Protein 1
Amino acid sequence: MAEKQNPNYKVIAENRRARFDYFIESDLEVGIVLTGSEVKSLRTGQSNIADSYASVEGGELWLINSYIAAYKQAGVFGHEERRRRKLLVSRKELARLWQAIGREGMTLVPLVMYFNDRGRVKLKIGVAKGKKVADKRATEATRDWNRQKQRLLKQG
């Protein structure tokens, strides 16, 4: 019997390029501090995390350069579209992330922003290492081969 999909779960924004540009070592679900107008704007699906990244500064985790469109009905009480947003994570996880990005070439990349089953906005971030051009070509070659393999199996 198939599981029922939760009606509250909804993907808001996805960074599809992250898996092409980076090797994702591990990922982690974190909360995000938002204002009311930002949540209203996210419910309409107007956001982008493709150009953003996460950083540990002053013992806190921050999401930098993420875009959430202005909510027109908020008027004067709206929000800044590209402001830094605090990410909520335990001290233990923060220490692990700080240690991971201390290694050479590691960075924190947002993978997907979504409403969880309780209707809260969550962000999945990945501890990633940048790919070189040759690695990107290899990834593309394996993807093309798998696609061609599926076509051959379908025909035969």
Protein 2
Amino acid sequence: MGIIHALQNWWQNQSILEVVGVITGLLCVYLAAKNIIWNWPLAIISVGIYIFIFYDSHLFADMGLQFYFLVTNIYGWYFWSKKTASEDKTPVMRIKKTEIILSVIAVIVFTFILGSVLKYTTASYPYLDSFCTACSLVAQIFLARKVLENWLIWIFVDVIYVGVYVYKNLHLTAVMYAIYVGIALLGYIDWKRDWKKQAA
């Protein structure tokens, strides 16, 4: 009985905004993993909600990231809509060596610059938050461009986010990111299967 009461109390303390953000966030990532274009409008709703959630939690780099996600979600919706008449969906691509090098450099530079700025604010974990934001920037553009390895970056960064959100008492968001890890793994497996079919 104590566990049920504790769960009821926990549920009553959850924000409706966070609940809607979690539901739309999970749906959009699941649809992206399944290579279904309707992930993009749900992603737009989710990031719009998380702009307010992260502002309220003083996770300013994450808040700024949502504005970037908003733009790349619109772009992703457009890019995934472009396919030839003979294609069922836009083909999956593999990462190039130059993209790996440029991505690593971008993550290091962005983390240092943004972290150095945020440490003078009330931001929580300025450098860790900036690092996760930088990794997410790279992963999101790869997702929009249908690059297979975007899922590996998401797995890595989502594991870190789980810990951050637990510590910030965003429990539903932490659960959502833990589920994201599993969905990203499924996305990688499904997209790799699609890429092999294309190659054949």
